[in-house]
Specification:
The protein is α+β, with helices and mostly antiparallel strands. The protein has helices at residues 2-23, 38-42, and strands at residues 50-58, 61-63, 73-76, 81-86, 89-97, 103-108, 113-122, 125-131, 137-144.
Length: 147
């Protein structure tokens, strides 16, 4: 009798297990996200061009560029390259932006990283804020560079 009950339990448990395996949902492959290129995100808004600094603002005081800063500006290329001149120092790297089109991240060869917050972006004006490692915020106003 015990043998019959054990045999029945084995048969029932095998049936339940095989049924559960058949009805178990198969995991669906997650769709891969294709990263939006910088060009796709902001090129339509006119970011990809050479921008020359017109003035900068610190502590609510607008300043014109000094002699050292006269050639300051940034050039965004639609392939993700960036050329930055800040306080007379030239750097070359890559750029990307977040999904909200609010932040632009510049990454340079020496792992140096800059993060710009877009305040205004029109065909004739690009205003962004940069906070340096010493927590000094500077708001830059740029216009397209004349050729």
């Amino acid at each position: 009798m015990k043998r019959t009950i054990l045999t029945l339990l084995k048969i029932v448990s095998i049936g339940i297990l095989s049924f559960a395996q058949e009805k178990a949902p198969t995991p669906k492959a997650k769709p891969t996200k294709q990263a939006a290129t910088p060009a796709a995100a902001l090129h339509d808004e006119g970011l990809c061009k050479a921008w020359k600094m017109v003035n900068y603002e610190r502590f609510s005081v607008v300043n014109l560029p000094t002699e050292m800063e006269m050639k300051d500006g940034v050039t965004f290329v639609s392939d993700g390259a960036v050329f930055l001149t800040l306080q007379g120092l030239q750097k070359t790297g890559s750029w990307s932006n977040d999904k909200t089109r609010t932040w632009i991240t510049l990454l340079f060869d020496n792992s140096e990283k800059y993060k710009f917050k877009i305040n205004t972006l029109t065909p004739n004006q690009f205003v962004f804020t940069y906070q340096d490692p010493d927590l000094m915020s500077t708001k830059y106003t740029c216009e397209p560079q004349k050729k």
